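Researcher: Next entry in the queue.
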Amino acid sequence: MKKEILFVCTGNTCRSPIAEALCKRMLEERNMDNDYSCCSAGVYAFEGDNASYEAVLVAKQESLDISNHYARTLNHDMVKNAYIILTMTINHKRMILDVYPEAQDKVFTLKEFAEYSKYDNDVTDPFGMGEEAYAACFREVKTVLLKMLDRL
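Model: Structure for this entry, 152 residues:
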């Protein structure tokens, strides 16, 4: 059975779908996709929302298609079934642990798990900003995911 990596952000329309799509590709490239799968959700997602236009655009520029992504709200089954839960911010982590304290051993910020920085545990939120902010977010997520995969 594959171990599921769950990426969590606020609305599941920008950061976590980008992380999910990038991680899937990286797992395939490293021949780790037989051992791991990934998905994403949001702590305040509106079920069925599409990925943001800018997230789709930036992903497409990197040969990733997230145009069919639909937002999902984090729920008990997702938390229970995840091997590891990687949040985009420390606040997302706190929100999850407030509701699901039993998940303490498997909830980390993405940067925390990747041992990326001791001082900055948040992935910058591009929501409502222009394409360049989304491109910067994409680069940030990609850099951190490379370190994260080395830790799995």
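Model: The chain has one domain: 3-151.
Researcher: Noted, moving on.
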